[in-house]
Write a structure and sequence with these properties.
Layout lengths: L8 E8 L13 E8 L3 E8 L3 E9 L1 H4 L7 H8 L1
Antiparallel strand pairs: 1-2, 2-3, 3-4
């Protein structure tokens, strides 16, 4: 897929930490790492047992494209480099 093509990608990876959580007798807490990408944003999050968000970050190109009223594929592809 070329940058700026409007594609969307989502990757989710589950793993057991093997670390005992505070206040819990449970040893193997499930963690899921999710990564989502589009032509102008990338986001990643870590979720515990499908209910608690441990981390969530987004890298956006919104400020780059705002003056043009939408995504400019050439600018998006340059920012991805």
């Amino acid at each position: 897929m070329r940058a700026g093509g409007g594609g969307l990608g989502l990757i989710a990876l589950g793993f057991c930490s093997g670390v005992r959580e505070a206040g819990s007798n449970r040893r193997d807490a499930m963690r899921v790492l999710g990564i989502e990408t589009s032509c102008d944003e990338t986001a990643a999050a870590v979720v515990a047992d499908d209910v608690r968000i441990l981390s969530n970050v987004v890298a956006s190109q919104e400020a780059v494209h705002a003056p043009y009223g939408g995504v400019v594929p050439e600018l998006a592809s340059r920012r991805h480099l």
